[in-house]
């Protein structure tokens, strides 16, 4: 039996078992404790256990482990697992906002604008608020204050603006007349950044983008390049990312994954995207990837990722990439 077939069978058995039993967090923490204390830690088993549960459930395993063994599970796994497995396990165990906050902090220190753009331009208002709170708690400094260190002034101002505005709108059907009016203003003299800062809601923004492309007779990416040609390249990349994520998050992350896979050194980015989308739209990202690039995402990872990231990623994709009722289709 091949590795992927074995993982798929494990997923089926585990999920069937979960449906028939009441979850016992002490038992799950005991399973992890036994694995990490055995001679030769079964790293695949650790990832399989963690990936089986939702993030909120993994937090209960952390508490149970601390209560029973008096140790922090994240610290234990950091000391027992090899690099790729270690990063996958800790990323799964952190609350999403904490993981994002840590990723942003590292990106600021390393001057990785690509990571800053990916995270800030793809998260919803509530998620950004939680990230800001987690950042303050983790690093005793505000996210906005640390973003001031970005050397690109255009990008710096845009990302800080995206971090501090409330763009949540009423979830309702798009008003086509209003969308046409906004598109006309944008085509004539309007500012797309100001539009994105309005609490219009995703459906209304999508309708406005569609009307703008009809008027402009070119893709909105071309509009951004022409309208903001005096701005920096990263500013335009951030604006395009925000728009793309508004239109279709799965399509946006599909392209981000492909760009990362084309650079073998970006395996960490692949891991971050897979884990951060694992409870929302990973199922649809996997489908989108196959549709766009005619290759399964798992096979692309097998070919392109660094070896120590390949196995944990394949396990997470096999388990968290299954269709779930909570999967968000955008």
From TrEMBL:
<dbReference type="InterPro" id="IPR037104">
    <property type="entry name" value="Annexin_sf"/>
</dbReference>
<dbReference type="GO" id="GO:0001786">
    <property type="term" value="F:phosphatidylserine binding"/>
</dbReference>
<dbReference type="GO" id="GO:0005737">
    <property type="term" value="C:cytoplasm"/>
</dbReference>
<dbReference type="InterPro" id="IPR018502">
    <property type="entry name" value="Annexin_repeat"/>
</dbReference>
<keyword id="KW-0677">Repeat</keyword>
<keyword id="KW-0041">Annexin</keyword>
<dbReference type="InterPro" id="IPR001464">
    <property type="entry name" value="Annexin"/>
</dbReference>
<dbReference type="GO" id="GO:0005544">
    <property type="term" value="F:calcium-dependent phospholipid binding"/>
</dbReference>
<dbReference type="GO" id="GO:0005509">
    <property type="term" value="F:calcium ion binding"/>
</dbReference>
<dbReference type="GO" id="GO:0012506">
    <property type="term" value="C:vesicle membrane"/>
</dbReference>
<dbReference type="GO" id="GO:0005634">
    <property type="term" value="C:nucleus"/>
</dbReference>
<protein>
    <submittedName>
        <fullName>Annexin A13-like</fullName>
    </submittedName>
</protein>
<dbReference type="GO" id="GO:0005886">
    <property type="term" value="C:plasma membrane"/>
</dbReference>
<dbReference type="Pfam" id="PF00191">
    <property type="entry name" value="Annexin"/>
</dbReference>
<comment type="similarity">
    <text>Belongs to the annexin family.</text>
</comment>
